[in-house]
Amino acid sequence: MKNRILLGIIVLFIISCTQVLPPEPVQPLPTQRQLRWHDMEFYAFVHFNMNTFTDREWGLGGESPGLFNPTELDCRQWARVCKEAGMKGIILTAKHHDGFCLWPSEYTEHSVKNSPWKNGKGDVVRELADACKEYGLKLGLYLSPWDRNSALYGTPEYITYYRNQLTELMTNYGDVFEVWFDGANGGTGYYGGANEERKIDRKTYYDWKNTRKIVRDLQPMACMFSDAGPDIRWVGNEEGWAMKTNWSPIRRDEFYPGSPNYKELRSGHEDGTHWVPAEVDVSIRPGWFYHKSEDHKVKTLPQLLDIYYNSIGRNASLLINFPVDRRGLIHENDVKQILKLAKAIKADFALNLAKNKNVVATNIRGNSKKYGPQNITDNNNDTYWATDDGVIKASVTIDFGEPTEFNRFLVQEDIRLGQRVKKFTVDALVDGNWKEIASETTIGRKRILRFPNVTATKVRLSIIDSKACPVISNVEIFKAPKIIVEPQIIRNQAGEVSIKGFDDGLDIYYTLDGTTPSLSSAKYVKPFLLAHKAILKAIVVDPESQKISPVSVARFDVSKEKWKIAGDFKGEERAGLIFDGDENTAWTVRNKPPVDFVIDLGKTLNIKGFTYLPDQGKWNPGIIFNYEFYVSRNGRNWGTPVSKGEFSNIKNSPLWQKKEFKAKKGRYIKLRAVSPAIENGRVGMAEFGVITE
Ligand code: FUL
């Protein structure tokens, strides 16, 4: 009898469990194809093509195939680096806007088959497809819709040509996970020798519906990327970030490749009609293609970490580009940086402090264990915590059981049921009091929050607003080690020095006498005035681990407080950018050289040299090559130059330049740009300084 009652209870319990229905999905929903893509999360772009050999970002289309000749092309090296970096696939620019094809397309002569590389017998797409297979990576392909080589571009025949090429790529290289349709389109070009401007109607020309059908038919699991999807959308910038509020749905019909409302792609639409998640595409260097001049401009670890957290941590995927060099290899500087990032990510997410910890919720769907809060710490993304229908405001509290220090909070919705959460907060129980750590908006597939270290016994996630009952599949909590890199030192025009470490909660020590700073040197607390000449050296120290960064060194001459632009550009507002201490801002002019940059130093100084940092800009930097430098007491009589010559190799290496000469007294200085380093009609500078006796 007893047994029968027990059995009855068990049966009733099972029935009651199975009777609680899962939440109704909130439309729109991701497809299977998109769900697979979401799991890729982090993968590589490779820009390698004709531009690599012509030092351009956009080729005009008339380049000779004879120029394409990598000396050591090795797609296995690309794959090895990407694999080691934790990336899951590689997307290759099979054809960029200049029309050159990295595979021997049957439909054009403008391809590798007419290049000296492997005597025209090579196929980069094939080599990459094979390398990806060997390393367990997925292959993606970029086929530029714009083709500045093709004589057909602009006519209906070009669409047939484009589709034939798409068909070749979708047929001959095995499974493709993503096809990249670029939005840049229409303009001047070679066009088979016509050398003219051609414009197309971006909305109708490609008959996208039927063009896309080729991909759907031949590669049903491939996701298609463009401003308008259909599967994945551009994030509306090429800098490496999504907005904190980031909805995967968008009102897709309002976009087309190259549409002007692209900024909305940065955060999607709460009332989006289609699931079109964002992909953050960014290059590890300023340019997409390889330029020797950018060898020293590979993104730093702090920059790469910001990109990681501002993309993957904001409900987007991350596509980092390697501008493969003329050898056909990922450059060693780029390899070094991407592996630093991989190591840092590994360290940040090494130990999930929430795993298997006790969790309680203010509401559980149907009081069923199936939807219980323990599902968020069970290390299984297929289970989730959900509330009763109509219960939007609800929270889960994770109990560490003891005071625990952390600085990262990761949360995921089960997107198979749609993106729901509109607003949430995270609180921590610190010394018996609840303290808000974060107040945020959307979650989506993955949201990762960074904040200064907190020591707490419990952490609470509260859903404040949601489209329907929340469905949370995972929460993870970490204590990421501090990033100890050399601090950034800036002195502005007023002479105020600020020193910044990458992470919060770090100590900074500095010296002004040229000695190496240590823990007993002056401690930096806030910006200070430094009007005189000095060598400032600074370090960052993690007070907890005592780890010390490499030393940053800044050599300052007299402060530029009284400096003013004189001469032809007197009163020019933007000119102040060359004394603002910020290497990322520049002032350039479009005047034809010789161009005279005259500065009134505000007082007479004994000048024995000058320093010049060329424009660090990505597009069309104004860089001076041949120069003359003058010093004058009154700004009228200049005499002969105290220094003249060239900034050797400045185009390839636009670093700080320093010229010294026999000291001369004067209040006015003039840098004459005699010739530019790049014939782009611009000369200018990022920063300028003098060296005094
Ligand atoms: C842009 C292109 O114009 C760039 O050259 C690069 O390929 C980038 C990924 O997309 O729209």
Q: What this model shows, in words?
A:
The chain is α+β, with helices and mostly antiparallel strands and 693 residues long. The chain folds into 4 domains: 316 residues, Glycosidases (TIM Barrel, Alpha-Beta Barrel), CATH 3.20.20.80; 121 residues, Jelly Rolls (Sandwich), CATH 2.60.120; 69 residues, Immunoglobulin-like, CATH 2.60.40; 129 residues, Jelly Rolls (Sandwich), CATH 2.60.120.260. Strands 1-2-3-4-7-8-11-12 form an 8-stranded parallel barrel, surrounded by 5 helices. α6 packs parallel to α7. The protein is globular and about 110 Å long. The mean pLDDT is 95. The protein binds beta-L-fucopyranose.
CATH class assignment of the largest domain: Alpha Beta
Mean pLDDT: 95
The number of E-state strands comes to 34
Distance between the termini: 104 Å
User: What is the CATH superfamily classification of the largest domain?
Assistant: Glycosidases
Q: What would CATH call the architecture of the largest domain? A: Alpha-Beta Barrel
CATH topology of the largest domain: TIM Barrel
Overall radius of gyration: 29 Å
What is the domain tally? 4
Detail the poorly predicted runs: none
Count up the helices.
9
Strand order of the largest sheet: 1-2-3-4-7-8-11-12
Characterize the main sheet. Answer: 8 strands, parallel, barrel
| Class based on secondary structure composition and strand pairing | alpha+beta
Could you estimate the helical fraction of the residues in percent? 10-25%
User: How much β-strand is present in the residues?
Assistant: 25-35%
Shape: globular
Bound molecules: beta-L-fucopyranose
